[in-house]
Write a structure and sequence with these properties.
By secondary structure, this protein is an alpha/beta fold. Strands 7-6-5-8-9 form a five-stranded parallel beta sheet, sandwiched between helices. Strands 1-2-4-3 form a four-stranded mixed beta sheet, with no helix packed on it. Helix 6 links the parallel strand 6 and strand 7. The two termini are 36 Å apart.
Length: 269
């Protein structure tokens, strides 16, 4: 039986018999929400909160509401549980890592890697290896690709790789909080990386028609609004290369990157 609220994800219509029950609910029609994809594109502000009256079919007379997550006050915003940022401020990264027998060496930057298959990974690993780096690889595509890398023991002497086990969602948050830089993918880890307030690189889900390129640049436009020009150019170039677009591999200044991410997190909150 339908509840008081029905959430439909990404326009995947509920079964007709269920919609018919929604229309016939004795307590009145439920609030029907179509939860859409996260994007920084302009249409999100125009579309968030719009209604779609159902004029025919099993749901005739019902109204569907469009809910778009986003990055401005005119969108549905981003999910953040109560107390998350306070918990992050109280978090002891060294203790959490030590409990998992992970011990960064003095002067070693800590980087997490969560990604899809990515042809740029070897070049990025080589770039990370130019300074002492502890790379924490998540199970799946990240670990599989790292295992396939050609042996460059001499040139990667400053790089250590630890393969992580699967983590709970709360522990994945804590992993992000531990790291100086996080590589994330898709939607959910992107959101959690922004609440972590640390530098991050996003691999957007690739679409065969190239629609992801406009979505990536729309987010970069919003994220880098007001940023110093040199830093913004370096970060955009890095993200483009990581997502298989044209450009040269460039690394933003890490301190400026962290300040920018902390300010962005505060703005989103």
């Amino acid at each position: 039986q339908p509840g008081d609220v029905v959430v439909e994800a990404f326009g995947c219509d509920p079964p007709a018999y269920f919609v018919e029950r929604m229309a016939q609910a004795a307590s009145g029609p439920p609030v029907w929400i179509n939860l859409e994809y996260l994007s920084a594109e302009d249409y999100v502000e125009r579309s968030h909160g719009l209604t779609s009256p159902q004029l025919g079919g099993p749901g005739a007379g019902l109204v569907k509401w469009f809910f778009y997550p986003g990055f401005t006050r005119r969108t549905g915003g981003l999910l953040r549980e109560r107390g998350l940022l306070a918990a992050r401020e109280m978090f002891e990264a060294a203790a959490w890592l030590a409990q998992r027998e992970i011990h960064p060496l003095p002067g070693e930057q800590v980087v997490s890697l969560f990604c899809y298959d990515n042809a740029t990974l070897p070049a990025v690993v080589d770039a990370l290896a130019l300074q002492p780096t502890l790379l924490l690889a998540t199970p799946g595509a990240a670990t599989t690709q790292l295992r396939r890398l050609p042996d460059k023991a001499h040139s990667r002497a400053a790089l250590r790789i630890i393969e992580l086990p699967y983590l709970t969602q709360p522990d994945y948050d804590r992993l992000l909080w531990c790291c100086d830089l996080n590589f994330v993918r898709g939607e959910d880890s992107l959101v959690r990386a922004q609440w972590a307030g640390a530098p991050f690189v996003w691999q957007i889900y690739p679409q065969s028609d190239g629609a992801h390129e406009a979505k990536l640049d729309a987010f970069l436009d919003a994220f880098l609004d007001g940023a110093e020009a040199g830093f913004a150019a370096d970060l955009r170039a890095l993200w483009h290369v990581w997502n298989g677009l044209s450009g040269a591999l460039r690394w933003p200044d890490l301190a400026a990157w962290r300040r920018h991410c902390e300010n962005w997190c505060t703005r989103l909150a």
